[in-house]
Amino acid sequence: MVERDSRRFFSKDQRSILYDRAEGRCQGCSTALTDGWHADHKIPWAAGGPTYGFDPRPVQWEVEALEPAELQRLVLAAIAPYVDRDVLARQVAREEGQRRALTDFLDGWDAAGGEAPS
Question: Mean pLDDT, consecutive 10-residue segments, the chain of 118 residues?
């Protein structure tokens, strides 16, 4: 059994230290960090990645500062080998059809003045 840190999220102090350590730059793509930047566990928290780990030696750090787009890119790259593209395409098409049907229904609802369309 993996002994793990019970804290899931980073404190304001930890985020401030991480921001300073990253010199205000995304550690994945090197762009300037924006207000929505993420303090990301290098080892996912769900897999036992710790929230602590603010050792001053950079190699020892367990977290990194990432822009949302970079975090999304890393997650998508990690799951890509496990995604069945045909199943995903069918699901996306099904959801688009549901969205169109809902839009058509709501348009009919609005045209009927909020009454059930006939």
Answer: 58 86 91 90 71 50 82 86 90 95 88 68
Contact call for residues 7 and 51 (beta carbons, < 8 A): yes
**How many residues are present in the chain?**
118
Contact 71, 38 (CB under 8 A): yes
d(CA 76, CA 83): 10
- pTM over 0.85? The answer is no
CATH for 76? 3.40.1800
| Predicted local confidence at residue 12, as pLDDT | 85
Q: How far is residue 65 from each of residues 31, 49, 69, 102, 110, measured CA to CA in Å?
A: 11, 15, 12, 39, 46
Which residues constitute the domain of residue 43?
12-81
Please give the tally of structural domains in the chain: 1
Q: How many CB atoms lie within 10 A of CB 117?
A: 12
- Determine the 3-state secondary structure of 102 from DSSP: helix
